[in-house]
Amino acid sequence: MSELIKVPDIGGGEGEVIEILVQVGDKIEAEQSLLTLESDKASMELPSPKAGVVTAIKFKMGDTLKEGDDLIELDVEGDEAAASTEPAAEEQEKAEQPAKQEAAAAAPAEKPAPKKAESSVQSFNIPDIGDGSARVIELLVQVGDKVEAEQSLLTLESDKASMEIPAPTAGVIESIEVKLEQEVQTGDLMLTMRVEGESEAEEAEQAPAAAEKAQDDVATAPAKEERAPAAAAKPAEPAPVGAPSRGSKKVHAGPAVRKLAREFGVELTEVKGSGPRERILKEDVQSFVQNVMRKSKETGGAAVTGGAGIPQVPEVDFSRFGEVELKDMTRLQQVGAANLHRSWLNVPHVTQFDLADISELEDFRKAQKAVAEKAGVKLTVLPFLLKACAHLLREQPNFNVSLAANGKQLIQKNYVHIGFAVDTPDGLLVAVIRDVDKKSLLELAAEAAELADKARNKKLSANDMQGACFTISSLGHIGGTYFTPIVNTPEVAILGVSRATMQPVWDGKAFEPRLMLPLSLSYDHRAINGAAAAQFTKRLGELLADIRSMLL
């Protein structure tokens, strides 16, 4: 048989149709949602009280509906018996109406005289939220907060709805008896609140209303039993959507969408809704996450959030101050910027500065100039630095590690590959020389020159830039004294080298001119402590001062 389904009790208000969830011809089950209504304070899905086939839809998108309005026509099988009981229930309700009126009239006569009270601490329980339980997903007040009547106290979420629980009266929060993620039911203690004045009078005024409601419940019990499916489908109170009270921007989204957003860690105020009245759908949340992941992949994760929750620098219109020109960063510059940003944000950097006396090393280097030219290479300071650092990585293996992803272990490397920074027209590159500890100075000079040439001509392979245990960044050909190089994660240290200068050094009897090389060792303080870093630069200075000590 065909049956007309109407809007059930939605709390005495009205709502706008913002989603239609069924079509003519759909076979639906009992409790299946038919549409979504949205009022000024709530979004709610209205379920079907019965199973059947939809034969007609009596509303359209944007309509305003209230309790009793027509929803759908439903072809229901085997429901004649249930339909026949409704007239009897209505007759019984009419017959018992006088008794209900008498009870309501008698109640005021028993009203006690109101009594003034300066203030009192009252307990407030979870109001009627229907059958079953709900989970506390937001606490919107704290102990000591002064709240107004109808101000939202907390947000609950059940399988079908999210709802904000309002304060029944104004007062000051004394204690909160629920906590986040707790499952609560109707009648559970929610909080205590200090209420100013006339608390006893208010209780007295509420008593007749409670009695009248009880009489009404008794009088209409048979009728309500017949309408049980519709009444049980939704709580008597509308299901307000949580979150609008937390900010000025109102968010339109259903419970399932909010749950999905919490699982992804998405702030719904940042998502643009594609539904009616900018309502946020599941697809909008999924698209938002996809866009964030895509941008994160393109920029190495640095430019999406500003890093570790740090607010981004506000955008400035520089054209207000004069003529400007917009130039694209090269792909290499973009990748390098993202990597440096990630390293700087994730690594607790500390830099140790020192000076190394390379007077004898420079004399030896010049003396071997002819030998190097005969071998077809140019012997610079870099091969000596590579050799000395490789020696130290063997001598002090705590510098030849990387932190494990779990943050609780160190990965010790039994090889010594060292990277060196190469400045190219397109950006900074780090080329890697493998097994530095096993190669001679001339071999290192030849390989460094070859890799530097490949870097400047864009011929470095991915393998040529991977696997380093330690990095050397030299600005000696440019100048400067000291600087703070950024650790090239997952390495734990990087050596910065500036220009060597002649300086007067006291030898105990007199000042002597010595060629001094500034060293800047930046390190990851999670893996290396300050004492170890100071020992590293001190020992490096000793090795560079007398390279023969590396043979011992």
At CATH level 3, the topology of the largest domain is Chloramphenicol Acetyltransferase
Q: By helix and strand content, what is the structural category? A: alpha+beta
Strand content: 25-35%
General form = elongated
Low-confidence stretches: 79-89, 107-111, 199-205, 207-248, 301-307
Quickly name the level 1 CATH class of the largest domain.
Answer: Alpha Beta
Radius of gyration: 38 Å
Number of self-contained structural domains:
4
Bin the helical content.
Answer: 25-40%
Q: Mean pLDDT score, rounded?
A: 81
Architecture of the largest domain, CATH level 2? 2-Layer Sandwich
Question: How many helical elements?
Answer: 13
Explain how this protein is built:
By secondary structure, this protein is an alpha+beta fold. It has four domains: about 1-85, RNA polymerase II/Efflux pump adaptor protein, barrel-sandwich hybrid domain (OB fold (Dihydrolipoamide Acetyltransferase, E2P)), CATH 2.40.50.100; about 115-235, OB fold (Dihydrolipoamide Acetyltransferase, E2P) (Beta Barrel), CATH 2.40.50; about 245-300, Dihydrolipoamide Transferase (Irregular); about 330-550, Chloramphenicol acetyltransferase-like domain (Chloramphenicol Acetyltransferase). It is built from 13 helices and 25 strands. The strands form six sheets. Strands 17, 20, 21, 22, 23, 24 and 25 form a seven-stranded mixed sheet that branches. It has a four-stranded antiparallel sheet with strand order 1-8-6-3, with no helix packed on it. The longest helix is centred in the middle third of the chain and has 21 residues, at about 200-220. The chain is elongated, with a radius of gyration of 38 Å. The protein starts with a strand and ends in a 7-residue tail after the last helix. The model is unreliable at about 80-90, about 105-110, about 200-205, about 205-250 and about 300-305 (pLDDT under 50).
